[in-house]
Specification:
The complex is a heterodimer. By secondary structure, chain A is an all-alpha fold. Helix content of chain A is about 75%, strand content about 0%. Chain B is mostly helical. Chain B has two domains: about 80 residues; about 90 residues, no CATH class. Classes of the chains: A mainly alpha, B mainly alpha.
C-alpha cells in the first residue's frame, strides 16, 4: 500500500511543468537518437548528460530514463522500413520486420512493434516497482564482502555476455578497472600512475572515458567509413496499423516469452537491451509455435525481440536503484548522472530519497505510454531525420562530447583525455574489443577496490571471507559460473572445430 | 592446406595488440611494485589492487598470444572448412581519422585563445568538410547557427562558463554575450 501511495505521489510529481517537459523531451530525443544510425542509444544518453547539470536531480534522471526507454523503440522504425538498424538491439527486427515490410505489411509490422514495446515495457515497470524496494531492503544487510561479491558478479556477467571474444572482453574490463586506479588512492592517499601530472593525480573521470570511448570513438569509426549511411528515399506512405485484439491474443506466448526474458536479462548487472533482444529472438526460434517460419516475415519475430528490448529497461533499473549497480551501459550513465547530482543509489536511497525514486518509477510508466503515442502519431517526421547529412550531425556529436567533458570539471585539460579515450574507443572498435566492459570497469572499479580493501582490512587479509559468508559466497559462485560457462563453451567449440579439420 | 601455411605474418598481426597489452601492462605492474607508501604492519597496501588487475591482464594477454601462436592454424583451417568467409568491412580511410583527431586537438588548443564561439564555428565547418560534406552554404550556416545556439543554451540556460578566449578574440565572445543578454 505504501508503495502505491508513493507511486501515486510520483505520478503527481510528473505534472510539474519541468518534469513533464523533460519527460516529453527525453522521449523525443531518445527516438531521434535511436533512428539515426550514427548515434547509439548510449551515446545519446551520454550527450544529454551536460544538459542536466543545471537541472535538479528528478527532471535530470527523468530526461535520461525517458531517452533510455524510448531509444529501445525508435530504432525499430528504420529497421523495419529501410533495413537500417538504428541500434544493435534492432538487428533481430530486420529479419522478420523488414521481411514483413517487403511483403507490403510494413504498417502492421510497426503496429506489432508498438504493442510489443507497450506490453514489455509496462510489465517490466510493474516488476521494477514490485522488486526494487524488497531488493533494497535485502541489500541493507550487505557489508563490504557482499558488495565486493556483487560487483564482481556484475563485472563477470558483462564479460560473459560481451560477444564473440571473451578474452577481448576481459582485457577491456581489466583496462577499465586499471584506469580507475589512476590517481590518489582513498585509503592511504598514495598517488598511483599519475607521473606527477595534476590532471591524473585527481583521477580519471569515468564521464570522460564514457564520452570519449562511446561518443568520439564511434564518430571516428564512422568517419573512417566516410559517413556512408544509406538514405531512404520515400517516407510519404509510412504509418502504423495496430493489430486486432484477437491477433494479439494469438501471440500472447511470444509476448510473454519476450517480456520475461527482457526483464530477467535486464535484472542481471551488465546485460542490456541488445542481449535481451537477441536472446528473446533465439528463444522464439527454439520454442515458438511457428519457429520454422521465423525469418520469413512473421509477427512473432518482431514481438519477441521488441518486447524483450523494452522490458530490459525496467529490469535494469532494479539493480541500479536498489544496489547502485548499473544493469546496462545506459544505466551506467544514468548512475553517473545520479552521482553528478550527489544522489547515491543503493539500499539507503529508499530511506533518504524515496520521493525521487518513485517519481522516476512513475516517469517510466508514463514514458512507455508516451513513447507509443509519439511513435504512433509522429513516425513520419521522426524518420525524416535520416535525411540529415551524417557528417554535420557527427560534428555536433563531437562538440557535445567536448562540452560534456569540459562541464564536468571546467577543465580544458580534460578534453585532451577525452580525445585520448576517443582514439582508444576507435582502436577498440577496429580490433573488436567491446567498449562496455571498459566503461563499466572504470565506473565500478572504485567501488570494487574500496569494498575489497575494506573486507581485507576488516577480516585481517582473509580472502576466504568472500566465499564463507552465505550471500557473498553465493554471488561469487554465480560469478565463477558466469565466467567458466562461456570458457567451457569456447573450449567445446574449439574441440568441435578441431574434429572438423581432423575427423 | 595452402591457406593454413604462410601465416607467420598473419599471426604476428593478430598477436600484436596482446603483445602491446603485455608490454604496457608489465610496465605498469613494475610501477605498482615500486609504489612508496606506509601501511601499518600486516595490512595490504594500495599497490595490491592494481597489481591484481594488471596480473590478470598479463595472464589474459599471455593466454591469447599462446593460443594464436600454437592453435590459430587449426582454427583458421576449420573456419575455412566450415564457414563462409566473414563479411569484410569496407576499406576505411585512416587519413580521415587522423585528420579528425588532429582537428579535435586543434580545437582544444584554440578554445583557450579564440574562445568557444569562434573556435566552435571553425571546428564544426572543418569537421563537416573532413566528413566529406561539400554544401558550403549549409556547412557555414549550420556552423555559425549551431555555435550561437549552443553558446546561448550552455551559458544562459545550463550556466556553464565556456572559454571566452584572449584579446582581440575575446571581444567577439563578449559582443555575442551582450547580444544574448549573458552577463
Amino acid at each position: 500500500m505504501e508503495t502505491l501511495t508513493l507511486l501515486g505521489a510520483g505520478f503527481l510529481s510528473l505534472l510539474e511543468p519541468m518534469n513533464a517537459a523533460m519527460l516529453f523531451l527525453g522521449l523525443v530525443l531518445g527516438m531521434l537518437v535511436a533512428v539515426l544510425p550514427g548515434l547509439t542509444l548510449i551515446m545519446g544518453v551520454v550527450l544529454a548528460l551536460p544538459f542536466t547539470y543545471s537541472l535538479s536531480v528528478t527532471p535530470a534522471i527523468i530526461l535520461l530514463t525517458a531517452m533510455y526507454v524510448s531509444g529501445t523503440y525508435g530504432g525499430a522504425f528504420t529497421s523495419i522500413l529501410f533495413r537500417i538498424p538504428g541500434e544493435p538491439m534492432d538487428v533481430p527486427l530486420l529479419w522478420d520486420g523488414f521481411a514483413m515490410a517487403k511483403k507490403g505489411e510494413a504498417a502492421k509490422a510497426l503496429g506489432w512493434t508498438l504493442i510489443a514495446a507497450l506490453c514489455g515495457g509496462l510489465v517490466s515497470a510493474i516488476v521494477m516497482v514490485t522488486l526494487a524496494h524488497p531488493v533494497a531492503r535485502f541489500a541493507l544487510s550487505f557489508s563490504a564482502p557482499e558488495y565486493f561479491a556483487l560487483v564482481f558478479f556484475g563485472l563477470t556477467t558483462v564479460v560473459s555476455l560481451a560477444g564473440s571474444s571473451i578474452v577481448n572482453a576481459l582485457i577491456s574490463l581489466f583496462i577499465g578497472l586499471f584506469i580507475a586506479t589512476v590517481g590518489t588512492d582513498s585509503i592511504y592517499g598514495t598517488e598511483r600512475f599519475a607521473f606527477g601530472i595534476p590532471m591524473l593525480a585527481d583521477g580519471v573521470e569515468y564521464l570522460i572515458i564514457m564520452v570519449g570511448a562511446y561518443g568520439l570513438g564511434e564518430v571516428l569509426v564512422r568517419m573512417e567509413q566516410g559517413f556512408s549511411s544509406p538514405v531512404p528515399q520515400t517516407v510519404a506512405s509510412i504509418r502504423t496499423r495496430l493489430p486486432r485484439i484477437g491477433e494479439i491474443r494469438a501471440l500472447k506466448a511470444s509476448l510473454f516469452r519476450g517480456t520475461t526474458i527482457g526483464t530477467i536479462v535486464g535484472l542481471v548487472p551488465g546485460a542490456g537491451a541488445t542481449v535481451s533482444s537477441f536472446v528473446a529472438y533465439g528463444a522464439e526460434g527454439q520454442y515458438g509455435a511457428r519457429r520454422a517460419e521465423l525469418g520469413t516475415g512473421i509477427p512473432e519475430g518482431i514481438v519477441a525481440p521488441q518486447a524483450a528490448a523494452t522490458a530490459s529497461v525496467g529490469g535494469a533499473m532494479v539493480p541500479l536503484i536498489a544496489m547502485g549497480i548499473p544493469g546496462s551501459g545506459a544505466t551506467a550513465i544514468i548512475l553517473g548522472a545520479f552521482l553528478l547530482h550527489s544522489l547515491h543509489t543503493g539500499p539507503q536511497v529508499f530511506v533518504s530519497s524515496s520521493h525521487i525514486v518513485y517519481s522516476i518509477f512513475a516517469s517510466l510508466f508514463a514514458g512507455i505510454i508516451g513513447m507509443c503515442v509519439i511513435g504512433y502519431f509522429a513516425i513520419r517526421p521522426l524518420v525524416k531525420v535520416l535525411a540529415l547529412p551524417e557528417a554535420l550531425i557527427s560534428s555536433f556529436v563531437v562538440l557535445f562530447c567536448f562540452i560534456g567533458a569540459f562541464a564536468a570539471r571546467n577543465n580544458l585539460s580534460d578534453l585532451y583525455l577525452l580525445i585520448a579515450f576517443g582514439v582508444l574507443g576507435y582502436v577498440f572498435e577496429r580490433l573488436q574489443f567491446p567498449i562496455a566492459p571498459l566503461v563499466l570497469g572504470s565506473i565500478l572499479g572504485p567501488l570494487a577496490e574500496s569494498s575489497f580493501m575494506t573486507s581485507m582490512i576488516s577480516f585481517r587479509n582473509d580472502w576466504t571471507v568472500f566465499f564463507t559468508r552465505p550471500i557473498s559466497g553465493l554471488l561469487m559462485v554465480l560469478a565463477l559460473i558466469a565466467l567458466v560457462f562461456p570458457l567451457y563453451r569456447h573450449i567445446r567449440d574449439a574441440r568441435r572445430v578441431a574434429q572438423t579439420v581432423h575427423p | 592446406m595452402a591457406a593454413v601455411s604462410g601465416t607467420g605474418w598473419h599471426k604476428a598481426r593478430k598477436a600484436a595488440p596482446y603483445a602491446l597489452g603485455l608490454a604496457v601492462g608489465g610496465y605498469f605492474f613494475y610501477l605498482a611494485s615500486v609504489l612508496e607508501f606506509s601501511a601499518p604492519g600486516g595490512r595490504i597496501g594500495p599497490e595490491l589492487w592494481p597489481k591484481m588487475i594488471l596480473g590478470a591482464l598479463l595472464a589474459t594477454c599471455i593466454y591469447e598470444i599462446v593460443r594464436i601462436v600454437l592453435f590459430d592454424n587449426l582454427r583458421h583451417a576449420a573456419e575455412e572448412a566450415t564457414e563462409p568467409p566473414p563479411a569484410v568491412a569496407p576499406p576505411g580511410n585512416l587519413r580521415r581519422v587522423i585528420a579528425g583527431v588532429t582537428a579535435a586537438i586543434a580545437y582544444v588548443n584554440l578554445l583557450d585563445k579564440f574562445g568557444f564561439l569562434l573556435s566552435t564555428i571553425l571546428f564544426l565547418a572543418v569537421f563537416g568538410y573532413l566528413g566529406g560534406y561539400r554544401r558550403h552554404v549549409v556547412i557555414w550556416l549550420s556552423s555559425v547557427g549551431g555555435s550561437v545556439v549552443l553558446m546561448f543554451v550552455f551559458m544562459r540556460v545550463v550556466y556553464i562558463a565556456l572559454p571566452l578566449g584572449v584579446a582581440p578574440f575575446s571581444a567577439c565572445s563578449h559582443a555575442a554575450m551582450s547580444v544574448m543578454g549573458i552577463r
